[in-house]
Design goal:
24% strand, alpha/beta, binds adenosine-5'-triphosphate, Rossmann fold, binds magnesium ion, 4-stranded antiparallel β-sheet, 7-stranded mixed β-sheet
Amino acid sequence: MAESKEKAVPVRMELRHVCFSYPNTMQKALDDISLVFESGTCYCIEGPNGCGKSTLFRILLGLDFPDTGEYLFEARQITEKTMKSESFRSAFYRKIGFLFQDSEIQLFTASVEEEIAFGLEQLGKPEEEIRDITEKYLRMFGLTEIRGRAPFNISGGEKKRTALAAVCAMNPEVLVMDEPLAGLDEEGQAWVTGMIQRLKQEGHLLIIATHNRPFAEEMADVHVKMDRNHHVTELIRGTADGQKTEENKKSNL
Ligand SMILES: Nc1ncnc2c1ncn2[C@@H]1O[C@H](COP(=O)(O)OP(=O)(O)OP(=O)(O)O)[C@@H](O)[C@H]1O
Ligand SMILES: [Mg+2]
């Protein structure tokens, strides 16, 4: 974010008939999911608890792999083998940033400021640039006062801000966010919503799972609706005047 004098580079991600079950379970967590995600668009993934939103994200992030069907990131098929390549992995995670549903599992360094600096170090940025960007994101995310605190000793809202600051500082083209407003008070929700609006205006590809209707209505260019059977049942496109045009599509989209 905001480092972008550089405009975000267009990205295309595609799922083709993806099915996935967790090991040792008979039930599908994702059943025949076909979706395309393109830059400059904000997709809100909506559906009941357990429908498969977080699982979908694990596939998009290359943490799990389809049992059947394909996942293509910029025309390259993402498989266990592709993700084992160190050079591919680092290029992939340079482009795709993520905010987990639970910030606890995302934060692992000794201080808030190290949390921001760590990702920048992984990108191989020079020390001085890392210092400057870290300062900027500490300020922008209101974290200056708690910069030296251990991430496991700060509040839930502060954890969410820290995780989001660390992701945004890396300026990825794609941001995948699982319940970014969960656990935040009204002020925190408004603040994070504003940050996500900025990312949207900068042309990032945003894929956001949310149970928060007003947030989805405000943010989504495309609503992706999932159901209890782990299917995508509808794509609903927002239009400029806020009206929705429904394309009632079955799972084979
Ligand atoms: N680690 C796991 N092992 C086995 N089954 C799992 C695991 N994680 C999730 N599941 C199952 O996979 C299905 C999809 O779960 P997932 O977490 O993707 O749902 P979700 O849409 O993100 O739900 P929520 O809205 O509660 O976050 C559910 O039936 C769930 O029980
Ligand atoms: Mg989830």
